[in-house]
Request: fold
Amino acid sequence: MPSTLLIPLAARARGARYFPWLDCRDAVAGELLQRLGADVDALLDDLPTVFQVLWRTGAVKAAGRAFFAAHPQGLGANLGCGLTQHFQWLDGGANQWLDADLPEVMALRQQLLPVLGPRMRQAEVDLAQPGWWQRLGLPPRSSAQPVLLVCEGVLMYLQPAQVQAVLAEFAQRAPPGSRMVLDVLTRQAVGRAARHPSVGPTGAEFCWGVGRMAELAAVHPRLKLLRAQSVAEAYGWAGLGLDALWQHWLGAPPYGVATLGVRDGFP
Reply:
C-alpha cells in the first residue's frame, strides 16, 4: 500500500469528532478503515493535517458541485484517487466519473471500492509519465464535453518538471470549459517532509511547491487561475490575517487549493 494512502482516509473517517464544522460526511471511509484493520491513532494525533484534509475535501466538493451544475452530463476524474470516493457527493444522476491511480492502488481499490454503475470507471495512471490524458481515454480538445480533474495529495510528491508537464498536458488536451482542482504547498515546505508528523514516518518527500499561486497558470498560455484558496479561510478572520502576512513575505499560502481553467483560442 502506498505510504501516504491512509492519511486522508483517516481524516475523512474520523476527523469530524475534532472539527465537526468541517464534517464531509464520508459514508465510505469509516468502513474502509475497519476492513483494512489499520491503526490510525498516530495520524489522528496530527490535527493540523486532519484539519487540512477536511477543508480540502469541502473545497473539492464545492468546486465539483459548481462544475456539474453547469455541465450536468460532464465527466469528472480523480487523478491519484487513493481510497477516496468523491462520486458519493458529486453524482448528479447524469454525469460520469473516473477514478485513477497507480497500479498497486487500483488493485486495492478494486477489492475495496468496486464501481457502482455504468457511469463510473477505474483506470491505472502514472502522472509522472507523459501521455496520461490519452491513455485514460479523456475527451479530446475538440470535444464539446468539458472535464473536471481533481488532483489532491499527489503533485507535491512529483519533481517540478513533472508537475509542469502534468499542467501543460491538461492545458494542451482539455476541452473548453474544463477545470482542474489541485492542492499546493508553499515552496518553503520542499525537502522538509521529515518534519511533518504524518508524512515524515512514511519516508515520502515534498518535492514541489509554489512561490506564488500565479505560477500555476504561467506554465502554459492556455491556463488561467480561476480561484486560489488558502486553508487559512477555515480559521476565520484571524487565520486570514495571518495568511495575508505570510503571503506578503513568502508569496503563497502554507497550504491551499487552486482551480485552473483553460482559455479558448490558443494554440
